[in-house]
Amino acid sequence: MKPALIIIDIQNDYFPGGRMELEGSPEASLQAARLLQGFRDQGLPLVHIQHVSNRPGASFFLPDTEGVNIHANVTPRAGETVIQKHFPNSFRGTGLLEHLRAQGADHLVIAGMMTHMCVDATTRAAFDLGFSCSLAHDACATRALAFGEQRVPAAQVHAAFLAALNGLYAKVRDAAAIAAEFTG
C-alpha cells in the first residue's frame, strides 16, 4: 500500500470567528496536524485541498479573504501540494486524481471539514476511483443541520456520516491509530 494524506478544507472560515464555524474545528485541526507531521516525517505524499467559493451568493471561502486561507494548524510548507477546488468533491474539476496517480498512491488517508459535505463527497469519489481509504474521524468536523422542523445536532450529523462511510468506502478510525499504521 502506498498512502497519501488528503487534508480537505481546514480553512479559517470554519473556526471561531469565521463565517461558517463548525463544532470541534480547533480540536479536529490538531488531529489533522498530527497526521500531517507524520506524513512529513516519513516523506510520504500529502495534498492540501483548499475550497474557494465561486458560486453566486456564496457567504464563506470567498476569494481574497482571511477566511479562505488554510488554517495555521495545518499550513502548507513550501513545496507541498495545494489544490484549489470549487465543488464538494475534491476530484471534480481539479488535478487531484492525476497528481495522486503520479505519486503512485493507492490508499488515501483523509482528514478535513465538513464531514457531511466535502469529506463525504471526496471519500465516496476516492472509493469509486479505485482508492482504499482511511478516514480519521477525530480529524474531521461538521455542524448541526436541519431537515424540515427537525434539528440534527453536529455530533449526530458527524456520527451518521461516519457510520455510512465506514466499511465499504473507508476504514474509519482515530488519527492516532491511522498514524501508527502509516507513519509509526
Supply database-style keywords.
two-stranded antiparallel ribbon, six-stranded parallel beta sheet, 184 residues
Give structural notes.
The protein is α/β, with parallel strands linked by helices. Helices cover 33% and strands 23% of the residues. It has a six-stranded parallel β-sheet with strand order 3-2-1-4-5-8, with helices on both faces.
Summarize the structure.
Helix content is 33%, strand content 23%. It is an alpha/beta fold and 184 residues long.
SSE inventory with pairings:
Layout: E1 3-8, H1 25-42, E2 46-51, E3 81-85, H2 96-103, E4 107-113, H3 115-128, E5 132-141, E6 145-147, E7 150-152, H4 154-165, E8 171-173, H5 175-182
Parallel strand pairs: 1-2, 1-4, 2-3, 4-5, 5-8
Antiparallel strand pairs: 6-7
Helix pairs in contact: 1-5, 3-4
Judging from the principal axes of the Cα atoms, what is the shape? globular
- Terminal residue distance: 15 Å
Task: Name the structural class.
Answer: alpha/beta
Give the proportion of residues in helices. 25-40%
Arithmetic mean of pLDDT: 97
* Approximate strand percentage: 15-25%
Radius of gyration: 15 Å
Unreliable spans are none
| Adjacency order of strands in the biggest sheet | 3-2-1-4-5-8
Reading the helices and strands in chain order gives EHEEHEHEEEHEH
Write down the oligomeric state.
Answer: single chain
Enumerate how many helices there are, as a single number: 5
Give the beta-strand count.
Answer: 8
